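Friendly challenge for the regulars: who can give me the structure tokens for this chain first? No prize, just bragging rights.
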Amino acid sequence: MAEILFKLKGVPEEEANEVRELLDSNHIAYYETPGGIFGISMAAIWLKDDTQLMNAQALMDDYHKARELRVKEEYEVLKKSGKLETTFDKLRQDPIQFAMYIAAILIILYFTVKPFFYFGD
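First reply, four minutes later:
Bragging rights claimed.
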């Protein structure tokens, strides 16, 4: 019976590829299900043989620990070198997009709150 190993919703393609390579290099049989057109289905990596589940989970635990350390180190290097992109940097790069986001937020807020102003009339 198939067992779910790794959900792919919100996972960067780089990480998904690393997981696929990890499973391939350890000769673990798997298949993938896509999220579908509307994202209703579960995008995931499934094990074909549930007897490999314990081995696969141990590999995934080791992989996630190593990835966490690697990402933290990359973050610290970027932070120390001053190359870490902040929100203010993104604002300076594309002020029009930032203004449009603020306008959209204000419009949504206006239409959300407006009915309460006329509630007592």
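The chain has a mean pLDDT of 92. The chain has four helices and three strands. Your move, everyone else.
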